[in-house]
Amino acid sequence: MNKRLQITxxxxxxxxxxxxxxxxxxxxxxxxxxxxxxxxxxxxxxxxELVYGTIRRKNTLDFIISGFLKQSNLQDEIxxxxxxxxxxxxxxxxxxxxxxxxxxxNLVDYYHLPGQKGFVxxxxxxxxxxxxxxxxxxxxxxxxxLALVTSHPSWIVEKMLSRFxxxxxxxxxxxxxxxxxxxxxxNSLKTNIEKLKLDLxxxxxxxxxxxxxxxLLLKGQSRFLNTEQYKQGHFMLQSPSSILAxxxxxxxxxxxxxxxxxxxxxxxxxxxxxMNNQGALLSSDVHEHKLNLLKKGFAHLGIDHAKAQFxxxxxxxxxxxxxxxxxxxxxxxxxxxxxxxxxxxxxNKQPKEISELVLLQKSILGHAxxxxxxxxxxMYATCTLTIEENQAQRExxxxxxxxxxxxxxxxxxxxxxxxxxSLARGELEILPFKHNLEGFYMALFERGDRI
Length: 451
What we know:
By secondary structure, this protein is of the alpha/beta class. It has 4 domains: about 5-135, Orthogonal Bundle (N-utilizing Substance Protein B Homolog, Chain A), CATH 1.10.940; about 145-175, no CATH class; about 180-235, Sun protein, domain 3 (Alpha-Beta Plaits, 2-Layer Sandwich); about 240-445, Vaccinia Virus protein VP39 (Rossmann fold, 3-Layer(aba) Sandwich). Helices cover about 45% and strands about 15% of the residues. The strands form 2 sheets. Strands 5, 6, 7, 8, 9, 10, 11 and 12 form an 8-stranded mixed sheet that branches. Strands 2-3-1-4 form a 4-stranded antiparallel sheet, covered by helices on one side. Helix 1 packs parallel to helix 3 and helix 5 runs antiparallel to helix 6. It is globular. The N and C termini lie far apart (about 75 Å).
């Protein structure tokens, strides 16, 4: 085979981008691709940045490219090659411009489109010559300009501006475009944080302890995924905001706990470890195929007191009335707080979905609340930043279910000193531009009526 046509990291990245164009989820397509190839950590990191960066910056890249085209009906392969080429030119300082252009031109050969090589070369070289230009100077509409500069849908930009103002919105959008750090949670059923830190450092992995109990920041490439500690379930990758939600529900040994919308299982895993395999944990979900993820996670992490079960909490379940000491409702939501984690998520959302989600959240929360025993705690949580899905839902719940009252949240990390008033009234909104964590909302309630 011609050396130039050997499978390269850029070719792998374009293939993933093409799958995403056809409807695949980027993180799933990338995971499946990595399992099919033997790649070095550096190649995996390079492909990951190419894929996620190109998808995140899609409308910025398309706008720049469109200014150098006479036609708009590009083939998918050419469009993906151009986007990825411009991403390297515009956002990857470590990639030489000549490599970004030449390697993009070479990619055309893989897709048997030889007549397009000159076209790709001309477009990218023109953009390279103008790469320091302000491509957005002529845009007068401030919302559209910010949407293009930061590569977000205009409706999200407008919604965040109306809530947070210019400076905080710009900081939020910038946060969404940063790669997610490698944050892991120690599995206390198999090891402890001190030993895990030493084990990873012995393999030349840079490790920092974070304020959130049991969490570590792993710096550099993703070599830790190949360690025996990872393979044996000594730790798991997890968002620190979701770890906090699980911990703030105060799980401990001997309790009966319900995780009502559990898949893929991260919060269930944290609560199970805090319970030290003592008590009962029911992790339910309405998607039956996701229950296998829960079961595999329990087995991998050594959790033997938990059960994964199909339950639809939009319906009444009297058999569970007043049964649980703790109930977590991490409700389906618009996910506007975690756009940094899923590169393609921002392009798959529509504003009309929010009102539909509000009704769904109310139904799940109202029914799951009946499963809380007297004196038990209920947490409502989302990974979004809209008032409709967060603060307004809390107010609705308190007015609709008078047997519940706010329960104070504990600052278990020491990271929320400035949020003392909010914690005292039983709610916390984690804001990327304020806390440097993924956006999250949680509200804690205590049931005080007789059952």
